């Protein structure tokens, strides 16, 4: 039983390897780019909207509302990053029902890369919102003795993000494989339907945790500074 798509290698040239994780990651990204182009090429503000635009607006509005509720700030600045995380993870997990598809989120290297994106985004948003001095002072609160502990906390939660997503996706694949061996006709269908739900839940949890970390980086002593209105001069 293959636990991770990293194990499957399609091409090797010296130290370079093309494994299933890389292949299916790029296939997922290509699919998202293609679908995005098809949905957005004929956007309109008329009352009669296409099904694609309706679905797109519902998804964007749902993400917009969730980000606003979690951060208590203007969501525009966070929507592209958080939305991309959610859509990529959700698509990767949902495509697992396609025969032969290996979800890249079942690889620890992919989940680590996603967690590192969050790890880098947190200080970037924090510094851009609060400034260098105010943001860095948060690591020394309530006393400078907390500095190493706060740094360890930043690193540990990044590791937790990666391991949580990898563990859930990998364990789901293993359970399906075991049930196929026990009852190859009934259980796989049930587990695939269950996998659709859990895949969306895992994407939602990852995006919510990322937004929580970013929102905490833009707060000072529990108070959130509202973002400026970018639409006004």
Helices, strands, pairings?
Layout: E1 9-13, E2 16-19, H1 20-40, H2 51-71, H3 79-94, H4 108-130, H5 132-137, H6 147-182, H7 187-217, E3 219-220, E4 223-224
Antiparallel strand pairs: 1-2, 3-4
Helix pairs in contact: 2-7, 3-7, 4-6, 4-7, 6-7
Describe the protein's architecture and organization.
It is a single chain. The protein is mainly alpha-helical and 233 residues long. The protein is built from seven helices and four strands; from the N terminus they run ββαααααααββ. It has helices at 20-40, 51-71, 79-94, 108-130, 132-137, 147-182, 187-217; strands at 9-13, 16-19, 219-220, 223-224. It has a two-stranded antiparallel ribbon. It has a two-stranded antiparallel ribbon with strand order 3-4. It starts with 8 loop residues before the first strand and ends in a 9-residue tail after the last strand.
